[in-house]
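Sharing a chain and its predicted structure for anyone who wants a worked example. Both blocks are below, sequence first, tokens second.
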Amino acid sequence: MMPRRLPLLLRHVAYELRGGFLIRPFVIALALGAVGAGLSSMEEQIPALGAWIPTILFPSRQDPQSSQLILSAIATSIMTVVSIVFAILLMTLTLASTQFSPRILISFVRDRATQWTLGVLLGTFSYCIAVLPAVRSLPAPFVPVLSVTVSMVLALVAVAWLIFFIHHIDQRQSHR
């Protein structure tokens, strides 16, 4: 009896993971964290990778403290945004689901735009956290210029994605 149930159970687990709220954001966060660690490591091995970034875009090439400040500020602000936005949204949707229908919360959790938004925000955080250890003052100062520049671009993408997400939530609720 058990061998016949196992494929059904595995199919059910795969279906739940595919539509789950945490799987897609977790995979995106892991991927961007791995990219951050890999890119900063490659920059240490191949210093010419960051040489093509114009000085006007990244003037503090020899100052590890400013790079550390940039990375930690991005990581801190992203986690603050994630905490506030998703706490308020989940609280509001939980209250609405108790008064109207539990499907409101389920549709929010299964919404791919919500999953991608959380993934992009958490991925930006994990990218910055992965690059941060590569920036150092001792024994020799090292600033992964390309990696830090990518983190600044990711921060802009995260802000744009957050604006899209707020618009998406507004459009979803106004069409109900």
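Comments welcome. The longest helix spans residues 64-99.
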